[in-house]
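Re: [help] complex structure
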Amino acid sequence: MGKDILQTIDSAGINGIKKADLKKAYGKDCDNTLESLKEKEQIFIEKRGVAYFVWSKENYIDYLKCNDPKCKLVLETAGPSQSTAKSKHTQNLREARTISNYSTLENNDFQSIFNKCLHESATSIGWTSFDKVREKICEIHNLSKEKFYMLARDLIDKNGARYEVSSGGQEGIIVRGLVHGYVRNV
Amino acid sequence: MYAYGLEANPYPSSPTPTEKDAKILGGRRHKEAKSAILECIKELHGKVDCRDATAGDFRVITVIQDVGSGKTHLALHIKNLQGRHGIACSFVDLSTISPKTISSIYNAILKGFENEFFVQLRTKFLQYLQERAEQGDKAAKKAIDYTLVNKLAGITIKDKVDDIVLGKNQVSVENLNTYLNQRLNQFESTLIRNVITNSFSGISSLEELIGMMSSISKLTQRFLGKLVLFEMDELDGNIESTEFVKGIINAHIPASILMLISTPSGYIEVQNTNPSVFDRLEKANYKIDLVGSNSKEELSEIAIEYIKHNDKAGKFGLKEQEELSGKIQVLCDEFPEFRNVRSLINILYHTMEKSEELELEKIDEDAIYDAIRHSYPGLKVRESLSILERK
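Output below.
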């Protein structure tokens, strides 16, 4: 069964496969197999939104490269072209420092800063536009627009019950193909 | 036969709710919002009971939530309840009025009432004229064109008024004008004349619009004992809309409730384009917040309510409700893009159609996925494509 599962996971490609779908296909007993594969680092499991996704090792690296600029940078630096990495040392160091700042913000402060900003800018019913929050946070914390929305999207995905977003506005996060430019903490 | 032994598809298929669809209201949040609105109506009824309404007898309700969250549905549901709660309700969709002139807004308000409302107002006023005429008021007799010839022919005042109500006879417009002008203000006279003759004259200024809206609510309270609920849907930062709203809030239209429905985007537009209107909205008497309207629990409850309402065979028991609720929650998890009332109802409509086609006893996951696949064939939905492709 382990081989089959691994093959299914591998064939799911860079998007990975939902753990729930594997259970549907292989039954609840596949949990032990997944644990064993995970221990051997043949697969990687990560929570995305409300669901757990599973990747094979290679696919997971590709997934991280596409979705996490920090990992992309580290992997590129430590990759086969070490000479290139060396020549880019100064630039990478600068970027790494910036990323380190992002990382601190990401891990510890973004949620509280975001909530504080929402609280300060909101109307009496709690709604505020994303651009107001983004301008404040990016200015104070030297974040790029893209990074802000990446962190905001991640925060809202992980805490779906705590935030509501609403369509409209010039910028925001995309849901159902619509810009959702308004947010509130509930 | 549809799933759960239903004779018809319980879910509506229109992209926006109709009055008929809105007869069913499900979900704890939506029911709480309904209670708050009914509480406002009850409270104002208590204030104006047994006396003429004054400028203080005016209330503002705001309903702000995202598109597709059930705001219009809630407004139409309340309109459907107007007979039970002593209100006459006019529903106006501001997005359908273009250009938003004073005249077009007034016409939309008139059209927003049920036809029956004007028939009732007309009948009640004619009965009032009848009473006055029977008590010897000559001007009232003249208004209904009750003459000596009528009397000699054995026609009573009641007969005359009954004929006018049935459209077999007419009032004397000239004498009616004289009667009204002596007893009512300019706008009230105009409204009654329009209602009696069933021909509404146009208006051109905000002052006239406010005057006519005040007349509608005052005369409705006086003759029908009802409050007027003006429901204004799709309010945004449009200059004409906000000026109109500012005017009617400032005018404190007696014995009436103004319900303003908007999205967070529209609400913030008002904040940016007309701060003084925004300030008035912030001070609304009731601020209905449909927070959590797109939560999985709320969506499940709404979906279940539609089937329960149509379950004549009693096949949709607690077990079936729990099963369906579980499937809806999984659907919401797997397709976060569809996590709003409008999208979910649409998917369930197609799923129910599928259940009839496949003669299913109950809705199952395959029917839901098939419905999604057939209803949204070209849709690029994050996370969902892989599931659909695997099936």
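The CA atoms of residues 295 and 339 of chain B lie 8 Å apart.
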